[in-house]
Amino acid sequence: MSKQYQFKLVLLGESAVGKSSLVLRFVKDQFDDYRESTIGAAFLTQTVTLDDQSTVKFEIWDTAGQERYKSQAPMYYRNANCAVVVYDITQSASLEKARTWIRELQRQADPSIVIALCGNKTDLSARRQVTQEEAKKYAEEEGLMWGETSAKSGEGVADIFTAIAKKLPLTAAPPASRGGGARGGGPAPRSGVDLNRQAGGQSGHNEACNC
Amino acid sequence: MDEEYDVIVLGTGLTECILSGLLSVEGKKVLHMDRNDYYGGDSASLNLTQLYRKFRPDQAPPAELGRDRDYAVDLIPKFIIASGELTKILVHTDVTRYLDFKQIAGSFVYRDGRISKVPSTEMEAVKSPLMGLFEKRRAKKFFEFLQGWRDEDPATHQGINLDKDSMKTVYEKFGLEPGTQDFIGHAMALYLDDDYITKPARETYSRVVLYTSSMARYGKSPYIYPLYGLGELPQSFARLSAIYGGTYMLDKAIDEIITDSDGNFVGVRSGSETVKAKQVIGDPSYFGAGKESEGGKIRVVEDGKVVRAICILKHPIPGTDDSDSVQIIIPQNQVNRRNDIYIAMVSSTHNVCAKDVYVAIVSTIVETDKPELEIAPGLQLLGPIYDKFVSVSPLYTPVSSGERDNIFITRSYDATSHFETVVEEVQDVWQRVTGEELKLKKREEASADK
């Protein structure tokens, strides 16, 4: 059987740049034009299969809106293996905001974190304010991955997540052993206790449900 | 901030965050604010910079303690008792998915000048120096009695009525020595003083059962602890609240609680902004705690004080087998006090400090006007102390239930060693805020790969 690796991926970016839509497209291949601000679903998983048949399972954390008033909890960045920082190509201010988030990640997150800068809404390229050259140049300077997507059409979405999966150092990651396994990041085996396993005679959750 | 909310929550301590999370899941529109730029209020875990800023504003953390980001120093010393109510809430709300837990390696009790491990296995119990051979047999009979107790089966009661007979009666029935009584009442039932002895035995029975079932759950000790410190707990419930639509604002000054002419809650003011809601919940510091009343309404009163000394050590606590984490209880009788002294220690194994550093908090309920002297018996057990941050915190309690004016004030974190009283507080406030008993619902599964 091929190996499966699990990683924690966090999303960042200004409100309304399409963070949740991007995840919804990636995970469920759906799009909703009139999506409200994120409610309820903020913990999704999706698996990417690489050329050598090993699989990378992303445990995706949405911001849950806590970033809006600069109130993102340190827990959010904790042990994140990768981050997708999203801006809207039709709003140059959103790239400025993305830069702020990248600085925040460089300060707060693990130094080995893989960061991808993602320009969303290419379906609205007629209203483009951020050129590819400008964003790409910035990404290169900061050593970030970069790509453009349209969560609406699906263009580029799988590409950016696959590119991240390829870039993650699979040797250093713990193979997914159970739900939540991406926490703890490093190669050390988990030695913690699982509260779900023996809770009041309740049977343990299986691996797939990722609780 | 011009929207109107169902509930405004002030302060991001654990009590407030659990309530905020549960209210949001229930569909309430919640605005949650904190004056600090970090989560956790009085139950936060601080990095070195934050710790020094709080206790020694004019001193930078010494470089030899290592990287700032490696630290998460708890402000209040508590552990999670494995089979307790907090564990149930964590599991029911699924916030366990944001947290990793580790065991606390051992629980110790002080007796006759030395500390001994509270036995976690039968083998340890047989070898334990805490009791003599004959006393062990008597104690065994006592524990078998507790374990065998069935409310509906009088044959298991051995003539005892848990709801009427005092714990004193039970101790006498089994002929237990005073030292053993101290051990059961303080190291297992976790009473802080001896008032329980004359009360009906039921509560002590429940506490001992909680302790032993928690001990049996993971072994070693009855306690578990979240990696990266207790501050992860409020953060995880805050995330739950945010996921269900709760709005978070940190670093927000709360300048005024606005009420109408009848004293009922209208909203809160921050600078020139005012935000309205039907109800407000908050910790005492947002309702005049510790401040002189300026002709305004007194909403909270002081109900005792706790002294806590956060001690940075460069070694494990002597006599604990180099345990990476421990609880040590010094029963009051052993040091001629009314209240027990507690020591809670964690270390780099729990990702709360740099490698080879140990963080111990010594605490007790203040009985004299020299609180720091009162914890001396605890400090003496630690060996050389690298640095020490002492605080005396008043415990505040609200003067009214809030049901009339829609102002619901939570209590300060008490001196108990775990979070069970915090959960009782949550249940109590929930009942008053919603008018209904708190019933935990299983959170809906949001995973995409099902």
Automatic annotation (TrEMBL), chain A:
<dbReference type="InterPro" id="IPR027417">
    <property type="entry name" value="P-loop_NTPase"/>
</dbReference>
<keyword id="KW-0472">Membrane</keyword>
<keyword id="KW-0342">GTP-binding</keyword>
<dbReference type="GO" id="GO:0015031">
    <property type="term" value="P:protein transport"/>
</dbReference>
<protein>
    <recommendedName>
        <fullName>GTP-binding protein RAB5</fullName>
    </recommendedName>
</protein>
<keyword id="KW-0636">Prenylation</keyword>
<feature type="region of interest" description="Disordered">
    <location>
        <begin position="172"/>
        <end position="211"/>
    </location>
</feature>
<dbReference type="InterPro" id="IPR001806">
    <property type="entry name" value="Small_GTPase"/>
</dbReference>
<dbReference type="GO" id="GO:0016192">
    <property type="term" value="P:vesicle-mediated transport"/>
</dbReference>
<dbReference type="GO" id="GO:0003924">
    <property type="term" value="F:GTPase activity"/>
</dbReference>
<dbReference type="Pfam" id="PF00071">
    <property type="entry name" value="Ras"/>
</dbReference>
<keyword id="KW-0653">Protein transport</keyword>
<keyword id="KW-0813">Transport</keyword>
<keyword id="KW-0547">Nucleotide-binding</keyword>
<feature type="compositionally biased region" description="Gly residues">
    <location>
        <begin position="178"/>
        <end position="187"/>
    </location>
</feature>
<keyword id="KW-1003">Cell membrane</keyword>
<dbReference type="GO" id="GO:0005768">
    <property type="term" value="C:endosome"/>
</dbReference>
<dbReference type="InterPro" id="IPR005225">
    <property type="entry name" value="Small_GTP-bd"/>
</dbReference>
<keyword id="KW-0449">Lipoprotein</keyword>
<dbReference type="GO" id="GO:0016050">
    <property type="term" value="P:vesicle organization"/>
</dbReference>
<dbReference type="GO" id="GO:0005525">
    <property type="term" value="F:GTP binding"/>
</dbReference>
<dbReference type="GO" id="GO:0005886">
    <property type="term" value="C:plasma membrane"/>
</dbReference>
Automatic annotation (TrEMBL), chain B:
<dbReference type="GO" id="GO:0005093">
    <property type="term" value="F:Rab GDP-dissociation inhibitor activity"/>
</dbReference>
<dbReference type="GO" id="GO:0007264">
    <property type="term" value="P:small GTPase-mediated signal transduction"/>
</dbReference>
<dbReference type="GO" id="GO:0005737">
    <property type="term" value="C:cytoplasm"/>
</dbReference>
<dbReference type="Pfam" id="PF00996">
    <property type="entry name" value="GDI"/>
</dbReference>
<dbReference type="InterPro" id="IPR018203">
    <property type="entry name" value="GDP_dissociation_inhibitor"/>
</dbReference>
<dbReference type="GO" id="GO:0005096">
    <property type="term" value="F:GTPase activator activity"/>
</dbReference>
<dbReference type="GO" id="GO:0016192">
    <property type="term" value="P:vesicle-mediated transport"/>
</dbReference>
<dbReference type="InterPro" id="IPR036188">
    <property type="entry name" value="FAD/NAD-bd_sf"/>
</dbReference>
<keyword id="KW-0343">GTPase activation</keyword>
<protein>
    <recommendedName>
        <fullName>Rab GDP dissociation inhibitor</fullName>
    </recommendedName>
</protein>
<dbReference type="InterPro" id="IPR000806">
    <property type="entry name" value="RabGDI"/>
</dbReference>
<comment type="similarity">
    <text>Belongs to the Rab GDI family.</text>
</comment>
<dbReference type="GO" id="GO:0015031">
    <property type="term" value="P:protein transport"/>
</dbReference>
